[in-house]
Amino acid sequence: MKIAIFSDSVLPVINGVSISVDALVQALREYGHSVHIFGPSVGRKLDHDPNVVRFASLPLPNAKDVWIAYPPYLKTLRKFRRHQFDLIHTHTCGPIGFIGLRWAQSHEIPIVSTYHTLYDRYAHYFGMLPRRYVRFKIAKHTNFYYNSVQAVITPSEASEKWLRRHSIDRPITVIPTGIKAPIHYSREDVREQLGISPQFKVCLFVGRIAQEKNMGTLLKAFSLASQSDQELRLLVVGDGPYRERCIDMVLELNLGDRVTFTGFIDPALVGKYYTAADYFVFASQTETQGLVVNEALAHGLPTILVEGGGASAMIQHNENGLISNNTPESLSKNLLRAVTSESLSAKLSEGARATARKNGQAAMAQNVLNVYQSVLELNGSNPSPTLRIKTSV
């Protein structure tokens, strides 16, 4: 097959959507399919992948890691027309996602879309506009866009429920993003490299540091837990617009010597921080799935998080992690449960690895291909033999 991927967020920008897109592209190519990526330009950075096509784009003033494509699109359209794509798969409903939809319609190409993000939870990025108005407009746009495609993929039951609640009547398939098996490092060597003393019990957060990640609850919970255990330390891996405010909160909570902000870390090296950690903590309620939670599970980390959104959907309480209420007290209590019980931590770690083994890239790709097959058959196309492979995963 020739597949065109359209997304307003692709590498080298690092976020859940771009990582999901990259994982899917790699997996589809391993199945032998030709995949082209249509995304925004990101400054002057060059692509090593010849199948990446960039739209001229500019960063949003209040979100420098969000790049918006601007017209004219004629040059990119000519590149698109050089290929006779069998299917278009969009991953956002922004400008580039909308272009993918329009080109699919005008060229009569089957189209599938993945709903990655609870967009209404990001209304605070729209400046002075009332949040209620912004959320209403987002809901209307979401309804129009996803009812215009032929099938929808979403990574969790939480996001599927959101779509159904907003009257999306297209077929929806829940397919979590698969991740590769982690690279194994020596824990002792990594801790020495990162300057972490052997006696410290390290809690880890990985992700974009933004207001919607509920960082206040996370930091307050760690403050309460560290009052009971002086050896607890927190590593915050990532960067974002809320980082300075989080640093201020750390100082206000007198945690300056117990919390480390690493800033941006090359994704290829983030595995070292998972290896060095003892627990993974996460308070965001705005995720459709929480890729970093899946990564933590793959590294066998007991995961303690706040209920709500898709991040907690892959956690079974007391089996592969602990689910807390959205309060610092509840999150702190569950963190201390894991810290003070070696048997519980061992059980959660074993359960985490078992869960991760079920969510690999091969399983994700085969399930996505099954969705492609259903759409191609609906359009009277002749699916490739690879698409006919069925799996019970």
Walk me through this protein's architecture:
The model is unreliable at 388-393 (pLDDT under 50). This protein has helices spanning 16-30, 74-81, 95-106, 131-146, 157-165, 187-194, 215-228, 243-252, 270-276, 291-298, 328-340, 342-357, 361-378; strands at 2-6, 34-40, 52-55, 57-60, 63-69, 87-90, 111-114, 151-154, 172-174, 201-206, 232-237, 259-263, 279-282, 303-306, 321-324. The protein folds into two domains: 2-178 and 360-388, Rossmann fold (3-Layer(aba) Sandwich); 187-357, Glycogen Phosphorylase B (Rossmann fold), CATH 3.40.50. The longest helix is centred in the C-terminal third of the chain and has 18 residues, at 361-378. Helix 10 crosses helix 12. The protein is of the alpha/beta class and 393 residues long. Helix content is 39%, strand content 18%. The strands form three sheets. The chain has a seven-stranded parallel sheet, sandwiched between helices. The protein has a six-stranded parallel sheet with strand order 12-11-10-13-14-15, with helices on both faces.
Tally of helical runs:
13
Q: What is the gyration radius calculated from CA atoms?
A: 21 Å
Query: Can you tell me the overall shape?
Result: globular
What is the domain total for the residues? 2
Helical residue percent band: 25-40%
Q: Which sequence of SSEs, written as H and E, runs from N to C?
A: EHEEEEHEHEHEHEHEHEHEHEHEEHHH
| Beta-strand proportion | 15-25%
> Mean pLDDT, rounded to whole units?
91
Number of strands: 15
Poorly predicted regions? 388-393
Q: Largest sheet, order of strands side by side?
A: 3-2-1-6-7-8-9
Span of the ends, CA to CA:
22 Å
So, the CATH homologous superfamily of the largest domain?
Answer: Glycogen Phosphorylase B
